[in-house]
Amino acid sequence: MKNSIFNNKVVWITGASSGIGEALVYQFANSGARVIASSNDLPGLQRVREACGDKSEQVTCAPFDLSDTSGIDEIVSQQITAKGKIDFLLNIGGISQRARIDETPLWLDRKIFEINYFGTIALTKAVLPYMIRQKSGHIIATSSISGRFGFPLRSTYSASKQALHGFFETLYLENKSSNIRTSVIIPGRVDTAISYHALNATGKEHGRLDEGQAKGISPAKAAQIIIKGILRNKREILVGKSELMLLHIRRYMPWLFFRIADKIKST
Ligand SMILES: NC(=O)c1ccc[n+]([C@@H]2O[C@H](COP(=O)([O-])OP(=O)(O)OC[C@H]3O[C@@H](n4cnc5c(N)ncnc54)[C@H](OP(=O)(O)O)[C@@H]3O)[C@@H](O)[C@H]2O)c1
User: Which among 232, 106, 251, 124 has a CA at the least distance from the CA of 175?
Assistant: First the structure.
């Protein structure tokens, strides 16, 4: 396999039971990496592990709930004991939202933040001291194009992703001299179950695949772009197609962004 740089590397992937995280498990396992696969869905993780075929022995399932990271130090310590190191941490797990601000109860805002922001930084903070000690490591977070601007029905999703940019930029600045690399993935549209699992105003799943979602790139293609970005040590890895133009429009022609966002079917 081409990316032999990953041979025998230890790669921890959250969100590994579905979508982008699942596709990354397959590609890293095929590249010779030893993969720690996490999500809150053990049967889902076991399915992904089995789907790795003759590479399945390279994959360890380490389930935990990103919204309850009280046991995270213990989970990390177990994995370090078993594997001896962690070379790459890919924080992919997350949840989206489909609810207006005036309908969304505060407990739901907090739940989305717990998963997308606090879950991600808790694992990152638990892994970081080991990486500092080993004087190497690459930590990756997953934002979204709506982590760069507000978007209807995504208020707290957008806010939780924007918060990750502040945290990971600081992580980069503080740890550059310790040889810790950081990247933030910014996906546009990827054809996964993200909109299906997005939370509505009652905290239940949105339960359907949005029209735009299906027009996104495949998870396998997204995983390829992400791995290429990691190999190039890119601080921001853009993943998607023409929808990524919105990032530039928002930055350089905000008036046009607000006109377009107003017209986008926001379900
Ligand atoms: N697809 C897109 O178009 C798109 C666009 C922008 C950003 N993103 C971001 O990309 C990342 C991956 O999303 P995806 O598209 O691959 O969606 P997905 O298919 O729904 O996968 C989400 C993953 O996150 C995990 N997860 C969710 N809540 C969790 C929790 N409480 N504890 C542990 N794991 C949890 C899920 O596992 P469980 O089964 O355990 O819930 C699943 O493995 C997310 O951070 C998302 O915000 C995606």
Answer: 124
